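Q: For a teaching session next week I want to show students how multiple molecules come together into a single three-dimensional assembly. I've collected the sequence lines for a complex. Could you give me the predicted structure tokens for the whole thing so I can convert them for display?
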Amino acid sequence: MSDSRERILARLRANRPIEVPTPTVYAKPLGWDREHCIASFMQRMQAVRGEVHRIARDAWVDWLAGELPARGIHHLLAGNGDVGDRLASALPASIRLSRYDHPIEQWKPALFNDIDAAITHARAGLAESGSIVLWPDANEPRLMSLAPPIHIALLDSHKLHENFAAMIAAEHWANGMPTNALLISGPSKTADIEQTLAYGIHGPKQLITLLLD
Amino acid sequence: MNQTDAFHRRIDEALHNAQLRQNFRSALTGIMARRAEQFPDETQLQALRDQARAVRANALVRQPELLERLEAKLTENGIQVHWAEGPDEANAIIHGILERAGAKTVVKGKSMVSEETGLNHYLEHHGIEVIESDLGEYIIQLAEEPPSHIVAPAIHKNRREVAELFQRFHPEIPYTEDIDQLTQSARVVLRDRFANADAGISGVNFAVAETGTLCLVENEGNGRLSTTAPRVHVAITGIEKVVERLSDVPPLLEILTKSATGQPITTYFNMISRPRQPGELDGPEAVHLVLLDNGRSRIRVDDELLDTLRCIRCGACINHCPVYVQLGGHAYGTVYPGPIGIALEPQRIGIHKVGTLTSACTLCGACGEVCPVRIPLPKLINRLRAEAVDGLRAGTAVRGHGSMRKPAEAGVWLLWRWLYTAPSRYRLFTRLATRLRWMTPPWLGAWTRYRCAPRPAQRTLHELAREEGFRNE
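A: Of course. Below is the structure for the complete assembly, covering every listed component.
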């Protein structure tokens, strides 16, 4: 252990400020029912230019098969799980489907330059802030929701929580965090020039959430 | 040149730069309203501020044990923790990490702590190329300027100035003053950098002791890219950023984004707890956290000044400061400008070096009213003003205590006290001051440069009151 560590900690231990009460666990129950949560999620997401489509549970494959060619998407990236499996047989021939099945070091330039869109699951959604929640893993790695210009997320509408505080309490997040957890609220944006909002800086330019009933 | 003269010269330059003042006026217009829109319910706002304050105050009281817990948990998670007393040590640690990893190019997310240490300069001096990837930071890196605001670093530049910088450094891109097109240009320019950088460096907004989690708040995605695409990630943060529990984070996140930019939430809230695990296909193989003290543990010794360390760096105090709006950030000459800078920097660096900043405050109280963690900024600034000139109280925590004390000024206050603490002397003084009012000098230095000299009335208020029948009893 370094001397600096010992010195810093010794200084901090030498002085204990006046005690303060341990803060209560923050909770902000809103009492929203499912429809209210869905409406708020959609409205918040759309307010920051996130696209949301509420469709039937099994309709997303057909929706993508119809919509992707219409949007000029030629190269779609899926993970190693069921999403890619289902798309493999359903997408029209004009769309190339790649799977994120080897380490990033082997194909970084292609991921950054050749993929038009990537599709992942969202683990949950937050109604109050209009956020999707991702726990990227070996099947759906971290860069999928980040490097391609379009990110498509599949979100089960039954997995909406009122807000962040409610979700981490209900799902006991403190018991075990993944390598990386994300709240994503819309496509990437910046206001660094004259405080003027501009979309599509370094992350995806479009975020499309398919809200599955 | 002493610190006060240097500060006055910078103020003078800022106030005479019409373009700069216009840029700040137009950029800051609306920012206060956008924040206010996020808090429609006053009661809820105050409750949220109480919660955020309680979380931060608790974390500071228990700081040593929380830092040890954070270190243990991060280590268990596979994140390597380093401790640095000051800038030189932090820079050397980071350089060592990069060197051992064979990293030659670095993409960097926004970090004010790295501004404290002068990290970019240090690494470049040692042959490592550093690219700032936040759009604002990238702009000022091209311009070779420090940030003028802790949240919006290039707020002092207008679109034409940005367009000219892009033209100079990227002549292959057609000239444009359109903000959307400039943003797209930055995307194109920086994309290869993200794909090819050996290492990423970022700051940290909250470090959670309970779970060993580093939280980053951002809109652009450059923070995520810097912490995901390269094979090494180095995070640097101040030791005060630790919080106890994961459940402490939601109220801080909510009040941070609402206070900072008037957004209910930012595009990305990125929680990092581990390097890449076996089987995972991306993410850095090594993650490091550098914990920097740089004067913070000294601030914590004083029960009043301790409040300074609650800061979550939202910049709301800066946006609401009538002095900052006129001056901009560079005039302060320190890493942190505005009210939080005035409160923090003299403690961090010493009153003998930057104590003069405390004069750039009207004590209007706007900063204290908007602070999401209820830092009593005006009270702290007033305390530091007293510390700066106090000759009696010895041995306080603040470096440079009493260093701005002037014998003449101290003499005037001594005389004032002598006059005002005895009724007989006071009566004689006010009688003389009113009767000899014609002797008041017409020129009183800076005060009379733009104002008339004050002249006592013909008769004292006490005299007039007695005539009206008021008595002291």
